[in-house]
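Example for tutorial group B:
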C-alpha cells in the first residue's frame, strides 16, 4: 500500500536520488497524449509542453481541448499544441484521428496512451466491442498501428501505456475478449482491459525489438484525479491523505519520455522509475502463446492489417 500511495515517490525520490529532466528535455520532439483534457493526461500534457515538446492534444470534448490549447499557447507564447477530437473507444474515430495526424504532422517521438475509464455497466461500442476493452486496448492498438510508420521515423520513439495496479487482480481468456462469459463489474472489466493493454505492450516490444521504437507500460500509483474521485468515491475518501498528486502520478511517464534511451527497457512495466513484475499471482498470467494469440484476436477485431507480423 505505501508503494502505490504518495509515500512511494516521496521516499524513492530521496532514496534513489531522482533528478528532474532538463528544462528543454523535449525541445524539438513531438508528443501525443490521449485523455489530455483531464487528470493525469492533462498533467502530462502540461509537463511535456513545459519541457519544450510540440504536444498533440487528444480528447473527446472540443471545448475542453480548445481551453487547454489556449492556456498552453498563452503560457508558452507559441502555437505548438494541435488539438484532435476523438472518442478512443470508437474505431472509426481512432482511424479518423490517425488520418488527421498523418496528414498534419511531420514527426512523432512520444505517444502516451493514457485515456481510461471505468464503465458502471456493460457497454458494447458501435463496433460491438466491450467498452473498457475498446477504450484501453483495441482503440490505442489501432492508433499505435496507424502511427507506427511516423514513430519509426524518429531515431528514438517511445510509446508509453498508462496501466493500473488493478491489472494484477485479473486475467483474461483471450478467446473471450469482451468477457461475454464473465459477470460484469466495472472495476473488474477495467482491470481486464488493462491486463490486455500490458500484454499488447509486451507483444509490440517483442515484435519491434531492435527498432528505434520502445514500448513500455507504467503504473501511476494512486493519484487524486477527477476520474478516481468519480469512479471510486469510497476509496478516494478513505485514501485521500495519502493519494498522489497528479504530478506525482505522472513522474514515471515523464521519466520514460525523457530518460536516456539506455535506461529504458522496451517491453517492461514501470512503477516509480523501476521495472516491476507483470504478475502478482500465477493465475492472472498470460503466457507468451496467449499474448501472441491476443495480438491476433485484437488485429481481427480492429479489422486492420497486422502492423508487426510475427
Ligand atoms: N488516478 C489514478 O490513481 C490511476 C491509477 C491507476 C491507473 N490510472 C490510469 O491513468 C489514466 C488516467 O486516469 P485519470 O485518473 O487521470 O482519469 P480521469 O481524471 O478520468 O481522466 C481520464 C481522461 O481520459 C479521457 N477519456 C475518457 N474516456 C475517453 C474516451 N472514450 N475517449 C477519449 N478520451 C477519454 C477523459 O476525457 P475528459 O477530459 O473529456 O473527461 C480524461 O481526459 C487512465 O488510463 C487510468 O486507468 C489512474
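The residue assignment follows.
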Amino acid at each position: 500500500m505505501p508503494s502505490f500511495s504518495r509515500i512511494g515517490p516521496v521516499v524513492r525520490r530521496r532514496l534513489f536520488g531522482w533528478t528532474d529532466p532538463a528544462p528543454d528535455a523535449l525541445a524539438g520532439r513531438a508528443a501525443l497524449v490521449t485523455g489530455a483534457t483531464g487528470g493525469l493526461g492533462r498533467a502530462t500534457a502540461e509537463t511535456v509542453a513545459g519541457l519544450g515538446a510540440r504536444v498533440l492534444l487528444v480528447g473527446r470534448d472540443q471545448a475542453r481541448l480548445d481551453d487547454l490549447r489556449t492556456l498552453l499557447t498563452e503560457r508558452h507564447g507559441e502555437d505548438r499544441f494541435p488539438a484532435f477530437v476523438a472518442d478512443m473507444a470508437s474505431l472509426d474515430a481512432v482511424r479518423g484521428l490517425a488520418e488527421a495526424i498523418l496528414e498534419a504532422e511531420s514527426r512523432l517521438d512520444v505517444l502516451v496512451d493514457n485515456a481510461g475509464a471505468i464503465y458502471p455497466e456493460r457497454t458494447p461500442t458501435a463496433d460491438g466491442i466491450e467498452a473498457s476493452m475498446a477504450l484501453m486496448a483495441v482503440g490505442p492498438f489501432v492508433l499505435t498501428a496507424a502511427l507506427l510508420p511516423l514513430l519509426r521515423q524518429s531515431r528514438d520513439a517511445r510509446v508509453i501505456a498508462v496501466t493500473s495496479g488493478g491489472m494484477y487482480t485479473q486475467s483474461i481468456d483471450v478467446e473471450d475478449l469482451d468477457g461475454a462469459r464473465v459477470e460484469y463489474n466495472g472495476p473488474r472489466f477495467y482491470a481486464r482491459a488493462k491486463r490486455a493493454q500490458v500484454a499488447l505492450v509486451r507483444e509490440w516490444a517483442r515484435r519491434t525489438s531492435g527498432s528505434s521504437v520502445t514500448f513500455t507500460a507504467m503504473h501511476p500509483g494512486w493519484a487524486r484525479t477527477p476520474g478516481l474521485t468519480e469512479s471510486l468515491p469510497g476509496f478516494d475518501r478513505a485514501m485521500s491523505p495519502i493519494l498522489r498528486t497528479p504530478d506525482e502520478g505522472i513522474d514515471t511517464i515523464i521519466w520514460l519520455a525523457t530518460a536516456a534511451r539506455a535506461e529504458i527497457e522496451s517491453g517492461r512495466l514501470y512503477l516509480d522509475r523501476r521495472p516491476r513484475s507483470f504478475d502478482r499471482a500465477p493465475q492472472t498470467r498470460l503466457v507468451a502463446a496467449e499474448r501472441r494469440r491476443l495480438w491476433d484476436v485484437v488485429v481481427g477485431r480492429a479489422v486492420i492489417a497486422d502492423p508487426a507480423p510475427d
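The beta strands are 30-34, 54-59, 83-85, 110-113, 157-162, 213-218, 269-271, 274-276. Compare this with the pattern of hydrophobic and polar residues in the output above.
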